[in-house]
């Protein structure tokens, strides 16, 4: 098959493509030409096979028919990935097991990076009266084409409240480490607030008020707020193990192991490692400090509520928030990289890729391409879409895309 250009929006020379057609045929065509090895990221949000039929798409297949639909499409996607690329596949628990086995077969179980649990709803409304576990999650299966080449971006997210494990105050940080002394953090905050005893502070401020003061004080003095943690002995170098053994034998001494420019030094006392809260603190755009934590395999901080009209399109079922795709593309790509979505739906992946400066190809065979996706992307190009991640990305319009069949 040969693709022909039907229309262009914005910059006529833009490489971005939305393609009308059966995704299997298009994928096989792309794999046989210049698109092979092009994409840093493939995101798929295939039919979940819920047993229902919606206006936009048919979501009721026999399980074997669903498997027969997905298998050749996954096989056609693999050669399209760059050697350092990855595929992100979102699904619910209806076909989770089947999709996991298919992706293990096509991409290799050794290349499975993660299974992320996405919390998409709360136990409210009719769900609150259901008996048994309430289903509130989707799953994101992440596979690299070649695990050894995959280099995801480091992502942190804001942590609510403080980390109570950091409960010590470094009294004299400017002295040599051998002279360092520590005191309870709560005692230091109590004194800072002008109280003789913590019970007095709690009585005056309330338990929640004292906790807020602890959080503010900790963030403001993060380089002096510390904790001790047991290191993973089997996971550190021989030099580190030897120092841990010495530290256990001389528990009152502080030992310091310099680990080069790329790693922070290992500081030990009593066989435990000294950790600083400052290493977990970031600042927002306004310069305010906040406690950050690494991204985990549970994503419960991206709201699915209130997105019904995001992008100016109404999609009955399974619409994804732009913030979710923003996280996927932040994790798996950099500006200028190519992104592919063979189940384009209402166009969320393409819209997010456009706003984030990625190049993209989207494939859709249903009427949503003309009814929802193309108008949505046209608004992105015009700069008239103020929803989703527009403000976060500072998007004001520009670029373009072509429509192909």
TrEMBL record:
Its EC number is 2.1.1.-. InterPro entries: DNA_methylase_N4/N6 (IPR002941), RM_Methyltransferase (IPR001091), SAM-dependent_MTases_sf (IPR029063). It is an enzyme of class 2 (transferase). Keywords: Methyltransferase, Transferase. Gene3D superfamilies: Vaccinia Virus protein VP39 (3.40.50.150). SUPFAM superfamilies: S-adenosyl-L-methionine-dependent methyltransferases. Residues 40-157, 293-365 form the DNA methylase N-4/N-6 domain. Pfam families: N6_N4_Mtase (PF01555). Belongs to the N(4)/N(6)-methyltransferase family. This is Methyltransferase.
